[in-house]
Design a protein that fits this description.
heterodimer, A: about 160 residues, mainly alpha, 4 helices, elongated, B: about 425 residues, globular
């Protein structure tokens, strides 16, 4: 069961990460075209800043779950490792549960924010791209993130239960 | 409870969550949200939370971070780091300790196109450690040099930590980049002199490598031309006012990509790996900034930074003594936390104090980067040391830490020098107007 969840999360996060890769590359390409156009042809790319902003929003949120799987977030590791394994597992489980609760709250609030953007009609300043689909996408991108937290929580519980 | 009391409890809770191994970014966001909620209202905090995530991830000024990180990963994929090392190795590898000195200068060169100390240490470690092993260099000297020289990557522009510091304090990133140049060069010389002294005292730890003809040396210079082109294009364009920081990073990344393709070094697989690596690092950094932004709001409503600034400013001790205490806190903090996390957590607290005491904020940025970087080479959370351990698994950790000690000494001496002679960092930024 846990293995299946792990495989599913990895595959899902991998797909999501490709959206992030496209986002970061788009940021580079759009900025290069904008600079070259502005400096050489006096014709900057219309809405370049808007595209870069939204691409970054997509890139970072869609890479979040893979970054979590790979353990890339900075942690202070020196203290917990000194404790017995069981205590470590209990602490890990509690920490993961708190983070999971917090990110479920974040997803809910992002959906509320997306709805308010939709209702009030908020757009990017230059190209008038509506913000709300992107905010909803960020909320969606945090779903695999939460699934990874569930997976890690279950793993931690299992580790704590082992003799 | 007063705002200050809640703020102190919040800081204590934050430290507790750090100790319990909650990732720094999430702990800051969580404590910031809870504290803000307590001091204002739950509704305001809930609104602020989603808004801060959106504003941080969609921030155009912050897009400079992914672009400069991408520039570094593409430069590595394009093989620029290998050619840099080959050039320095061809010129000074025949000297006593020459391979380690070559590593120091190659790291400085790579630092000029890559903004991360860990990436610089990992890149140079993979290239130089096998060479040093081949010529029977002492393990402690070899690994200690690579780990310590990695810190040059964060000081010499572009620097991700200085970018984040600039964004948090609203100081010109261009000026901060300029401020890192001279200290970076002097620190490289300090490291090279350290190697020289160690090898002079015990020649067996750094035997001379092979000697190359002048023709070969001159031919090897092509290896640094690409790095110079990239530096002039991206950082030069930024200094000249041609590009904004984001544009400079994107042009640098595009330039590194073109070099990799022209050299036929950047295969499709390497290209994707470089993009993914840059994305993951950027994700980690932007999450930390998001956490810091939420935490910063809490600190602001708690008024802790201002109360602390008032209190420290009124103490009957010279401002430099307060500065020394702050530097010491960073030094100790660096033992337990990565420099990026440390700076993001502490800058909202210490920056108002530094301003109140009348210190130059650019100089302070360079100082805390230097002190924070001591943490990446000291136990128990010496990230660069673990990176080197990953590259050279047969060398015990204590040997690497032993090798780092002389370089840590050089870093401390240089930091003290910079504290008493701020002009080292501030005279160049004073000459530029952006």
């Amino acid at each position: 069961m846990l293995n299946k969840l792990e495989k599913f999360n990895h595959r899902l996060s991998d797909w999501f990460e490709w959206v992030g890769v496209a986002g970061i590359l788009l940021m580079m390409v759009v900025t290069c075209i904008d600079v070259t156009g502005a400096k050489l042809f006096k014709s900057p790319l219309f809405g370049a800043l808007d595209i870069v902003q939204l691409s970054q929003l997509m890139a970072i949120s869609f890479a979040a779950s893979m970054t979590l799987i790979l353990g890339r977030h900075i942690e202070v590791e020196f203290f917990v490792v000194l404790l017995p394994r069981k205590v470590q597992a209990v602490i890990r489980s509690v920490v993961l549960l708190i983070v999971l609760g917090f990110f479920i709250l974040i997803i809910w609030r992002l959906l509320v924010l997306g709805y308010s953007f939709h209702a009030s009609g908020e757009y990017t300043p230059t190209a008038y791209i509506p913000y709300y689909p992107f905010v909803y996408s960020v909320a969606a991108a945090f779903i695999p993130f939460c699934l990874v937290l569930v997976q890690e929580f279950l793993k931690s519980l299992r580790r704590g239960g082992q003799k | 409870m007063t705002g200050t009391t809640v703020g102190i409890i919040g800081i204590a809770l934050l430290i507790l969550l750090f100790l319990l191994r909650m990732p720094v970014a999430f702990a800051m966001a969580l404590v910031g949200f809870a504290g803000f909620s307590y001091l204002t209202s739950a509704d305001a905090a809930l609104h602020l939370l989603a808004r801060n995530i959106f504003d941080t991830f969609a921030s155009y000024p912050l897009s400079v971070i992914p672009m400069f990180i991408l520039m570094g990963t593409f430069a590595y994929g394009a093989g620029i780091s290998q050619r840099l090392f080959k050039t320095t190795y061809t010129w000074i590898g025949h000297l006593r300790g020459g391979l380690t000195i070559a590593t120091v200068f190659a790291s400085a060169g790579f630092g000029a196109i890559c903004g991360s100390s860990t990436a610089t240490a990992a890149t140079m470690g993979k290239i130089s450690l096998p060479e040093m092993k081949k010529y029977h260099y002492d393990d402690a000297l070899a690994t200690g040099t690579v780990a310590a020289a990695g810190t040059l990557g964060i000081l010499i522009p572009p620097s991700t930590v200085l970018i984040v510091y600039g964004i948090l304090t609203e100081i010109s990133i261009g000026k901060l980049f300029v401020a890192g140049i001279v200290p970076g060069i002097i620190l490289s010389i300090f490291f090279a002199v350290t190697v020289g002294l160690l090898c002079w005292r015990n020649p067996s730890i750094g035997p001379p490598g092979p000697s190359f003809s002048w023709k070969e040396r001159l031919r090897s210079m092509t290896g640094i031309i690409e790095a110079i082109i990239l530096f002039v294009l991206a950082i030069g364009g930024l200094f000249a006012g041609l590009f904004s920081p984001t544009q400079a990073g994107a042009i640098g990344a595009g330039g590194a990509l073109v070099i990799g393709l022209a050299r036929r070094q950047l295969s499709w697989q390497k290209f994707i790996e470089a993009a993914k690596e840059a994305l993951r690092t950027s994700c980690m950094v932007l999450f930390i900034i998001m956490g810091a932004v939420v935490f910063g709001h809490f600190m602001a409503v708690s008024r802790i930074p201002f109360v602390l600034a008032e209190w420290l400013g009124g103490l009957p001790i010279p401002p430099m003594a307060v500065m020394a205490v702050i530097a010491f806190i960073y030094f100790i903090g660096g033992f337990f936390m990565d420099s990026m996390g440390l700076i993001v957590v502490t800058v909202p607290i210490f920056f108002p104090i530094v301003m109140k005491l009348g210190f130059d904020p650019i100089w302070f940025g360079v100082i805390i980067v230097l002190v924070g970087e001591m943490g990446v080479i000291t136990p128990p959370v010496g990230v660069n040391v673990f990176v080197i351990k990953g590259i050279a698994p047969d060398i015990p950790l204590q040997v690497i830490f032993r090798g780092i000690l002389p370089f840590l000494g050089a870093l401390i001496v240089f930091t003290i020098l910079l504290m008493f002679f701020p002009k080292i960092a501030t005279f160049l930024p004073a000459l530029v107007s952006y």
